[in-house]
Amino acid sequence: MCSSKHSELILDQFTRQAVPFATAPSIKDEAALKLVVDFSGAGPDDTVLDVACGPGLIVVAFARVVKHATGIDLTPAMLERARGYAAEQGVTNVTWRQGDVLPLPYADGSFTLVVSRFLAPTGAPLGAGVGGSCSEGGNGTCASAAFALSPWDAASARASRVP
User: Tell me: the pLDDT tens digits for 10-22?
Assistant: First the structure.
């Protein structure tokens, strides 16, 4: 679990950055989002959790191809952007939850796929603590596309599957 001081810092910084982050061309690039979804192998029977979901771009991208997608984030301003984006995109098979991601507030096996695009700001090792929420036989996908300088930089971003 993040310390109270660390959580306060995250809340402060990501509240300030909610709009600029959510609207940055390299962050909302549809080709990059599709690449993450395609890489994960997600399909119509999957239930997805996006850890530290921010403005919900990854959640909405997954929601287009999966049964249900859930986003959890510490920052209410980011979740407000996520709800608005999902509504704008006409996506209804999504759930949003405000909360700390360490530990995740979900039972083991709750999701077939656990993803994160930018978990590093929590101060935790990438992927730490997320495996238990993924069902047996499910997988985790972490795409690190932070600070992509152009839409195509995201395509060459480091991505890894966590069994």
Answer: 887 877 888 888 8
- Where residue 77 sits, what CATH number does that domain have? 3.40.50.150
Report how many domains make up the chain.
1
Q: How far apart are the first and last CA of the chain?
A: 23
Query: Domain of 101?
Result: 4-162
Task: Give the angle 132-117-66 at the CA atoms, nearest 5°.
Answer: 70
pTM: 0.73
Task: Name the band, by pLDDT with cuts 50, 70 and 90, for residue 3.
Answer: low
| Per-residue b or e along 2-40, where b marks 16 or more CB atoms closer than 10 Å to that residue's CB | beeebbeebeeebeebbeebbeeebbbbeebbebbbeeb
Does the pLDDT of residue 97 top 80, yes or no? yes
Spatial separation of the C-alpha atoms in residues 130 and 106, rounded to whole Å:
10
